[in-house]
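Q: A small favour: would you put together sequence and structure tokens for a protein?
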Amino acid sequence: MAWAQSQHLAVLLRSGDAQPPLFVFDLGDDDFRFYREIAEHLDAGIPIYGLCANGTTETDDSPCSIETLAWRFLAAIREIQPKGPYRLLGHSFGGLVAYEAGSRLIADDESVTFVGLIEAEQGTASLHDYAVWVRNYCPYVIPASCEMFTLSHRRESTNAINGACAQAYARLSAAASAGRATFEDLGSLAEAIDRRLRHPVAKLSRAPKPFDPLIALRAGDGGGIPVFVVPGAGANVAYFWPLAEELPRSSAVYGLQPRGLDGEQLPYASVQAMARLYVDRVRAIARPSDPIRLIGHSFGGSVAYQMATLLRAESHPLDTLILLDSTAPGAEAERPGRYAPAAVMRTLVDIMEEYAGTSLIITDQQLRALTFDEQIGLLYRRMVTHKLLSARASAQTIFDMVRVFKANFSCGFRPGTTYPGSVLSVFCEQDQVGGGGPPHEIAAWRRYAPNCRFASSAGGHMTMLKEANAAQLAAIIRSAWEYSG
């Protein structure tokens, strides 16, 4: 069995009344014996669903990290419960997956009232390969009622997954400043869980700050129509400055910054949630009678597309939507989280090398041999060596940027509807084939945007926005807006 059908991952263990369900994560025991014992002590009105990965085989779209496995389970959870409040419980490795699923729900501004993690021995030896996933897992501290429990009678184990999970639980407990309640038997533990479910205690490990994505890149000098630009995955809007300087002087230019670059916020886990926030801020700036002008680069093209869809549904006028070297939603984009951690880092390194015009001398073999923290350290040292980053800068800056990149890069996007408005997709020259872009990209964008036109501009994926090429790109964009006007 492959991973394609999310509904096959969820099993109804017990029906209940109108209460929100409890989702339990079991990554090694597909008859859920552990949770069936716990359920005997829980409120009988709580529906319980089990999520289990057993019975699957490695395929091209198989998860390859805790983050990607959590995303796959979330698809099943949302089919059962589209909106919160959500309640999640997992033990051992399953507890870490439950925690990551809770992080992603909170990142999309959903309500999560309970995340329970039980440190208990994982008895299935088949999970030993997951130990690598645990060592590479770098969780966020989430503002939710996260409870950590320990079964004191568990045996000390040399099993790789148990040792890795014990270390991960210790790190998470320290980061979240969360104590762990210890219980002698499963019944006492289950009763404590029942009390928490009945009376959740809100815990804020970090007080969330209001997040405003809007950054003014350039003021307009003539009351022109403002322009809103959406950067690529994990990118700071600052790289739009050369293009902003070449756009009509009468128009103010605003960037929509990804959430999480400050290290204080969770990055969004879906294009849809990001687009909703951005549209709220755009509405506050744009005049109701003026058409909104959106530009999205790379991953930002998907966000800009979704923003345009939302604004059109509100009958707000839009100018031609500009997509800069943006991959159309398709087979790869529709399988979020399919990328291995080393492959994601490889993509980021390639992007940085192209923009900087130099090699950072980081090989695939190096990346595969390193944990996430070690990859961050290597990237930081190489950037300092090649003077892409000041030696006075903290490695935390790179850490935060990489985590946002990973979250954006792996969240995927499948439009819920086509966009019938005017669209211009601009490819960089190195991708140009005949009519202005790779044939498969042209066909894919026309499937979602029937009125999409295509062009190409000088430079590569990143360098098309640099000073040497910004004037040509701006001329193409201005022409598109004049054409649609």
